[in-house]
Hints:
- Residues 59-313 form the AB hydrolase-1 domain.
- By secondary structure, the chain is of the alpha/beta class.
- It has helices spanning 15-18, 24-29, 109-123, 137-149, 165-176, 182-193, 200-214, 225-232, 236-242, 284-293, 309-312, 314-329, and strands at residues 32-39, 42-51, 58-62, 86-91, 130-135, 155-159, 272-277, 297-302.
- The chain has 2 domains: 4-165 and 257-329, Alpha/Beta hydrolase fold, catalytic domain (Rossmann fold); 167-225, no CATH class.
Amino acid sequence: MVTFSNCKNKEEVSSLNYFDYSNPEDQYTGGIRMIPIKTPAGEFKVWTKRIGNNPKIKVLLLHGGPGVTHELYECFDGYFPKEGIEYIYYDQLGSYYSDQPNDNRLWTNDRFVDEVEQVRKALGLNKDNFYILGQSWGGILAMEYAFKYQNNLKGLIISNMMSSVPLYNKYAEEALGPKLPKEVFEQIKTFEKNKDYHNPKYQDLLFKYYYTEHILRKPLNEWPEAVNRCFKHLNPNVYIFMQGPSEFGITGNASLKNWDVRDKLKTISVPTLVIGSKHDTMDPEHMKWMSKEVQHGRFLYCPNGSHLSQYDDQKTYIPGVIKFLNDVNENKF
């Protein structure tokens, strides 16, 4: 792993100016900004928090869900600062630390893309320093942003997200489901057929047999506190409207159910890292294919990881992301 002491941009980023909060307002809030966002339903505010200063590498983190929080990325605190990487935590509209309007008109891909663009402008990010890292739903949002605004990007990271929800559902049904004990898979499908998603038995089956295999590969009592806190803060209204009631595919009348952009990937020309994991809910072979469809792509495979591979395969995930950022910054990509 690259260390902060030998970063090639150390002339620009020292430990002193990386942790510089000399702007009085910035220091007063610890880097937190509530950014006003204009929407069809009025103006609201979204929460952001900047960590560090780097004029060349600024990474905006797009969380998953939809409707979870930036807290899924808090493990980055143990790695990115010593590498001199500036990163921005950000809760999308509807998520716990931001405003949470109760208006389903707001939960569309186009509206979220417009929100990200407003956040970019407010933070002063541009094509000379602006990277997006989006995981899961955040990967959908990252792709959609790149389709419309890639001229504003220096680099793109699509983490643990396929480019087709129908193919994702097929993978869950045909590849992952049959790996479960037969009686467990049958029970899960029965609960879903009956739309009995709130049944405690249904939730128990998912957590015991599915989530600990394909979301985060640790026993539930060993899940990181930040992950538990993130799920505790989930906004079910946004999540169910867009994703549906289960992580076992995107089901019901979820608005993302038919999302598919396979034929648009070839239009992405910015340097792109696609991350896939062996035990993920998403097909790693599809994500490897994605890395070849974009014009300048790289694939990072996490052999021990699942959906949250920044936790269960940190030894692969974190160095791979850091190397991508530094390679793009040093024109080695």
